Amino acid sequence: MTSITLDHVQKQYDSGTDIRLDATVGAGELFTLLGPSGCGKSTLLRMIAGFVAPTSGRILFGDKDVTGMAPNRRDTGMVFQNYALFPHMTVAENVAYGLKTRRIGRKDRKPRVRAALEQVGLAGYAARRIDQLSGGQQQRVALARAVVIAPTVLLLDEPLSNLDAKLREETRAEIRRVQTEAGITAVYVTHDQAEAMAMSDRIAVLDAGRVHQIDTPDTVYHCPATAFVARFIGRSNVVPVRVEHVEEQSVRVSLSDGAAVTPPPPNFEVAAGDELALSIRPETLGFTTPEDGLFKGRVSVREFNGATSTYTVASEEMSLQVTVSDSGTRPQLGDSVSVGITAGRPWLVRP
Fold first, then answer.
1. Is the dihedral of CA 69, 73, 79, 80 positive or negative?
2. Of 338, 346, 320, 319, the residue nearest 262 (C-alpha)
3. Could you tell me which residues come within 8 angstroms of residue 90 by beta carbon, excluding any fewer than 6 positions away?
4. Which residues are CB-contacts of 63 (< 8 A; sequence separation ≥ 6)?
5. Are 60 and 25 in contact (CB under 8 A)?
6. Which residue, of 78, 98, 114, 181, has the greatest Cβ tally within 10 A?
């Protein structure tokens, strides 16, 4: 297995767009570049692949500097958003294409193609035409073609965006299983937060060419580095706060309505008087008695999610989303309610 080092890699365009990343992808890791459209994630992936030359910085596979190396010499397998399969070839011929270009003989190609198709759950599909396959099956063919060459690095560019929601869930699990079993270091590009959270060892969250945070899915969700990360990953109430008091193990902040909250100390310097933001996940809130409530308001919206319901509770000062189990007594639209918060769960972020 091989690590990937992006040593102060930067791409500047004449338009003024500036994309940069300084990170190391561990050997065997699935590392996801996550962000909205146009944030630079596909450009970074294409620099790793060799299709785009960086303006500055170095790209290393293990100890080998591949910055100036041609794409076909980097030993990467790539899975594209549109599959890029050859419609005039059978499934087996598509999977074997990379082996054929590497001048691997027919006798040696056959067992490797068979093994790759078994690995992605398509044993018995070798003779099928591409137009006889579903979208999910075509994506598995594209994955088999990428892994059959036993690449050093696997690159995946929005590979599930053309599939429906249920098929995306099934295929992402398949991709993760194949990548883990093969022990290939992978870089995955997506704009889908749920996809990134479910599959990744670590996530780099980007916006407008800037990396806001690189961390594990759990940490990115529960301890976002910035207000952008808090809003982009799942749902979050991001509310402005003022720091009132700082101690070694705690910080006291006040909301716009004067209510006090004591979140854990953040991983950056804060001082009394600082204007920051507080990320409060809806599931860390709940309905409580007036004397125990942090916030009082009226229910303005209810969204039924199946096992849970999400309520919007609004006052004159602000509104909060509250997600609770959809069982027992439920507030009705227009009801006055009090909202309490789970201790230690709010998280201070830079605005």
1. positive
2. 346
3. 126, 127, 128, 129, 130
4. none
5. no
6. 78
Mean pLDDT of 246-266: 87
> For 104-218, where are the E strands, in sequence order?
153-157, 185-190, 202-207, 210-215
Phi-psi map region of 291: left, alpha, beta (phi>0 left; psi -120 to 50 alpha): alpha
CB 151 within 8 A of CB 77: yes
| Residue 270 to residue 247: CA distance in whole angstroms | 10
Q: Please give the structure tokens belonging to residue 78.
A: 């790539």
User: Mean pLDDT across the stretch 261-290?
Assistant: 91
The model carries a pTM of 0.90
Q: What is the pLDDT of residues 148-171, one digit of tens each?
A: 999 999 999 998 888 888 888 888
User: What 8-state DSSP symbol labels residue 265?
Assistant: P
Query: Where are the alpha helices (H) located in 50-124, listed in sequence order?
Result: 91-101, 106-119
Mean pLDDT of the chain: 91
How far apart, in whole angstroms, are the C-alpha atoms of residue 239 and residue 14?
A: 37
